[in-house]
Amino acid sequence: MNYDVFYPPSIKSALENDPPGAWIPDVPQGCIRLSAGYPAAELVPTLQLGASIEALLAEEKDLPLQYIGSHRAVMLRDWIRRRLMARNMPVAETELLVTAGGIQAIDLIARVLLDATATVAVEAPTYMEALEIFQNYTRNIITIPVDERGMCTVQLEQMLQQRAENGLPLPRLVYTIPSFQNPTGSNLPLERRRHLLELAETFDFLILEDDAYGELSFASDPATLKSLDGHGRVLYVGSMSKVLGPGLRIGWTVAPAELIQAINWFKKDLDHAFVEASISTLLTRLDWNQHLTSLRNAYRRRRDVMLQALDQHMPETVTWHVPDGGYFIWLQLVGVDTGALLNEALQAGVSYVPGQYFFVKKEQGRTFLRLSFSSVGEQDMVEGVRRLADLVRTRTLEKKGV
Amino acid sequence: MNYDVFYPPSIKSALENDPPGAWIPDVPQGCIRLSAGYPAAELVPTLQLGASIEALLAEEKDLPLQYIGSHRAVMLRDWIRRRLMARNMPVAETELLVTAGGIQAIDLIARVLLDATATVAVEAPTYMEALEIFQNYTRNIITIPVDERGMCTVQLEQMLQQRAENGLPLPRLVYTIPSFQNPTGSNLPLERRRHLLELAETFDFLILEDDAYGELSFASDPATLKSLDGHGRVLYVGSMSKVLGPGLRIGWTVAPAELIQAINWFKKDLDHAFVEASISTLLTRLDWNQHLTSLRNAYRRRRDVMLQALDQHMPETVTWHVPDGGYFIWLQLVGVDTGALLNEALQAGVSYVPGQYFFVKKEQGRTFLRLSFSSVGEQDMVEGVRRLADLVRTRTLEKKGV
């Protein structure tokens, strides 16, 4: 039977894109997984979670397994609001929605703001999962260059001015990961943050701030766009995925109450009372600042190990910037097609994510790749970088005809 | 700031409906909650879940908290497939998608099949959450009468024929709860099931079969539409909400692989590895058939208690049918506006769901209400029915001018 005839045009159009997760390399057993943006196993508070759930069920019995009634699940919202307040983001109850991960929050925001006629702007490169989402709604995606200090807001301004002058549609939404960006690791300086907020007022767009890595700084804490926003322009997305564990599927979005109400209209997985109550209980038993300090120290150390390995093993044609937080290092390999190289790398026992997946125009990412220093142990990480460097060197030599 | 200007027309239209959950009564503390379609507290295997999670985390450590890697989470799919097979629904891996509850599955199916130009058909009355979902996509909702034996398929056929003759759009999707329907408790006989499947072929529509209550039969097990479907017309939705607990948010949909792929395209909360692995572990420790038998016996007994209380206390103007499974009894109260009565009932200490919420045309539900016998203990249930009966009797007497 042909089901195509049942799909509305907008769905048919979305189904023409690459399928979800096309970027995930098919990593063989035993391969060193520098592709994975996962927390380190030893930094996931597994035992505390188990103990918390035991305490929760002893206290609340079946309530966290029902639709409503779990006090602990409700308390998660209070915890998140206190945490946001501590980061200069005072938020009313009606301005917060807990979601099943940050990605769902991005999808729900796209759902209420975008259709096939809408224009959205994203960084180039940007988070491939967000790109997948926006491509489900519209083909009108414009891109803003990113350098080692994040989104080039001057270029954004020029582009918006030109579009306005030429009568081209302006973006309704600008998606950005200002702090320790995925994939570049770049951190937007304060003056660019302020500039972006000014542009939102001038050109009347909303900003989707993805702050998945904002608390994982190795130096000073960046001020979120949300904390600087005086005009209700920012829709903020946070997540437990990088600071607790992604399999829990807990994220949130903060926005003006009217937008939160609209977003919640379309959230049909409902509240995940059991997981929310479990995490809420865990958070009463965890010193969050101490937990964050452990994460920062551990990931800073891993970053340093990876940087050292890169310095030691990579040929000079390969370049990168030092990230001040987050999970990733973004490599440029002059003259190497990282998409074509991936299979060889997997055979050589190391995985990465080819740059192409982080761009709307894939060819822009041809010579880039993303490495993650978050999840692999130090020894393996060094060995993974060495394997990759060997491969790159061979490839570069081949090119030179040696 | 006015955010309306940022919404696409389809979203603006959806936001004109009642907000989600408008049907949920604002139940005061201590009120007897005959409105709640929850499992009984003592039938939720809370302790076994706690023990299962302890075992899971000892075995798999951080893996269930990561994106992928939990063997137990994967095993849930196998368990569901074995269970479907036992109910004469052999299903390939590619034909199953685990969702965050049955409601999400309904929403995702609506997402890939409906837009503002599409027509969908639903039972009248039908599940109010499903109605909310369809109304988010289209205003073209046609309704099929339900009697004590479920959807009136003969009337559906007549309507479809008339629409075809008059050049009116035919539904792309027919949503039904054939077994122990919410809210009527009716069970579609085999001949109507076969008739509906024939109509799908003749009039070229797909069927969304919501089987949330299918395993909670008090007599014989009905054959699902999916098990009778020889032509790939049925998209099946199942759920753990009524047989384990809704706060876990575990459901699934079964459909031809092509449709499952399309549905998954838009599922952006990703896989809930932790909950899936937890439930999967629980299921290895639970004798499912025995668990179902306990549920059936307990809910049958509660149904009987409610029926007896209704017989004893309700005036003769109130009528109902005896459900052979599920959670609900559907009352008709001649001459009583159940929406208007609700506040008094809540003050008298009993809650129900007014009939209006189960209909596209709300006035059709004016004299109906839904009672749930699933979650309230026997004594409270009898007392709740007595309170409601007292109120109804007063109201009826008032009408008669006594």
UniProtKB/TrEMBL annotation, chains A, B:
Pfam families: Aminotran_1_2 (PF00155). Residues 92-388 form the Aminotransferase class I/classII large domain. The keyword Transferase applies. GO terms for molecular function: transaminase activity. CDD domains: AAT_like. It comes from the Bacteria. Its cofactor is pyridoxal 5'-phosphate. Keywords: Aminotransferase, Pyridoxal phosphate, Transferase. The keyword Manganese does not apply. This is PLP-dependent aminotransferase family protein. It comes from Alicyclobacillus fodiniaquatilis.
